[in-house]
From TrEMBL:
It is a multi-pass membrane protein. This is ABC transporter ATP-binding protein. SUPFAM superfamilies: ABC transporter transmembrane region, P-loop containing nucleoside triphosphate hydrolases. Keywords: ATP-binding, Membrane, Nucleotide-binding, Transmembrane, Transmembrane helix, Transport. Residues 357-592 form the ABC transporter domain. InterPro entries: AAA+_ATPase, ABC1_TM_dom, ABC1_TM_sf, ABC_transporter-like_ATP-bd, ABC_transporter-like_CS, P-loop_NTPase, Type_1_exporter. CDD domains: ABC_6TM_exporter_like (cd18550). Residues 36-321 form the ABC transmembrane type-1 domain.
Amino acid sequence: MSNFPDAPDDYEDLAARHVSLRRVAALFVPYQRRIAGVVALMALASAVGLAGPFLLRAIIDQALPQQNLGLLMWLVAGMIGAAVIAAAIGAWQVVLTSRIGQAILHDLRVRLYSHLQSLSLRFFTGTRTGEVQSRIAGDIAGLQSLVTETASELGKALSAVVMTAIAILLLDWRLAMFVLLIVPGTVLISNRVARMREALTFEQQARAADMSAAVQETLSASGIILARTMGRGPHLAQRFARISGDLAHLEVKSHTAGEGQWALIGLALAILPALTLLAGGLLMQTDSPATIGTLVAMIALQEQLLWPFEQLLETGRDMRKTRALFARVFEYLDKPVEITERADPVTVPRTMMRGDVQLDHVSFAYAEAHGPAVRDISLTIPSGSHVAIVGPTGSGKTTLGYLLARLYDVQSGAIRFDGVDLRDLSFDTLSQMLGVVSQEPYLLHTSVAENLRFARPGATDDELIAAAKVAQIHDHIATLPDGYDTLVGEGGYRFSGGEKQRLALARTILRDPPILLLDEATSALDTRTERAMSLALDAMSKGRTTITIAHRLSTIRHADLIVVMQAGQIVEQGSHDDLLAKAGLYASLLRGA
C-alpha cells in the first residue's frame, strides 16, 4: 500500500512521463466550438442567477419599507423569471455537455484500441488480456465523470464563484474581503486531500485490473476445465475473494482518506454566515454602515457562493484522481509501435503476386532471451513449391513463422516476397500475399459463416462451402442444426481441436493467398482426416507456395524441400529420401516420431 501523503515513487514517475495538462486538454480541442458554447451558457446562467440577491436587496430596502405593492410584484416576478431562465439554460447545458463528453470518450477508446492493434506480438505475449481489457473499459469508463459531469460541474461552479465574488465586491468590498479570506486555506487543504486520493486511485485501478484478469482467465471455458479437472475451484474462489477484499479496502480508503481535513472546509463554510453577520454588526458602528438590505443580500450571495465553491474544491480533488486514470491510458498509448508501415509502402496487385520467398541471412532474438532464436538463416523458396521446416522443440521453427508473417521484424538480414522486403510492403498487400494457419486456431464467438467471412467479408455462400470442402469440414457443418449459422462458442469450444483447425484452414483458403504458411495446422487431426486433408491441400497447393512448420513428420514426406533446424540454425536440408540417407538429425527425429 502507499505511504501517505505522498504518492508512490513509481506512480509519480509514471504520471510525470505520460500525463500533462496540455495532453489532457488536447482531447477537448476537436470540440472547442461546442465547449465554448457550453461555457457561454454557464456564464449566462450564473449572471442570471446573480439577479436574485440584488432584487432581494431592492425588496428589503425599497419595496417593503415604502409599501410599494407594484414594485414588490415586479421584483418578485423578476426573481421567479431569473430562476426559470437559469433552470432552462442549465438543462440545455447538461444535454450538450453529455454529448461532448461521450464523443471524447469514444475518440479515446477507438484511439487506444487502434493503437493496441498496431503493437507487435511481443506486447501481447507479455501482457495479461484482463489488464488490456481493464484499461480500455474500466479506466476510460472511470474518466466518464470527468468529461461529462465533472467538467460541466467545474464550469458551472467556476463561473458561479467568479460572478458571485464580483457581486459580493459590488455590494460591499469590506465584507467581501472578509468572506474571501477563507479561500487560500480551503484550497491548500483540498489539494492535500486530492494528492492522497490520487495515489489510492492508481492502486485501485491496478487491483481492478487484477480482478479483470482473474475473471478472464478462470471463468473462460479453458479456465473452468482446468479448475475442475485439477480440483482447484475453492482455491480460485479464495484468490478472487482476496483480490476483491483488497479492492474493497482501497475503495474505502479512497473515499475516506483525508476526510478529517476535508471536514475543516465544511466547518469553515458553515460558520461563515454567522461570522459575516458579526462583521456586519461591527460595520454598523462605523461612519459608513452597511444597510440591512445589503447585509441580507450578502448572506444570500454567500449561500449562493458556498455551494459552488465547495463544489469547485470537490471537483479539483476528483480531477486529481483522474490523473491516475489518464496515466494508465496514456501509458498504453505511448507504447512504441514496432511494426510500422512505410510512408510510401509497396503495393502489389493480386494478379501480379507469384509467391517467391527469400530469407537472406535472417537473425532475430527475443528481448528477454540470452541468445538469438533464429541465427543467420538463408533460404530460397521458389513460387509454387512446398517447403517443410522441422526440428526439435526450441529450434526456432515457430519464430521463423512469426518473422514470415511479420508479427516481429527481423533484427538483421531480410525476408522478401517476390523480391520485395516485407518491411517495404503495405500491410494490406502482405495480408493478401500470405495466409497463416497456426497450431492454436482462434475462432470468434460468432457463427461459422461469420468466422469464415472474417477472411473475405464479401464471400458468397458457395465460396464458403467450397473452402470448407477443401478443408474437409463441410460435411460436419452440414450436420449441425443451424449449419453455417451455428455459433462456434467462446474460443470455438463447440468444436473439437481438429474441427477448429479445419475451420481455420477453410478461413485461410477462402482468402486464396499465393503463399500458405501452415504452423502445425493439422496437429489436432486424427490420422484418417489428416490423410484426407493432406490430399486436399496437395490439390490446393498446386501453383501456390506452401511453407509447413511441422512436428509430425508424417505430414511432410512429400515436400519438395525439407529444412531441418536446430538451435536457431539450418543444419540440414533436402528431400525426405536424401535426409534419411544422411542419417543425421532428420533421421533421428523420424525414428523418435
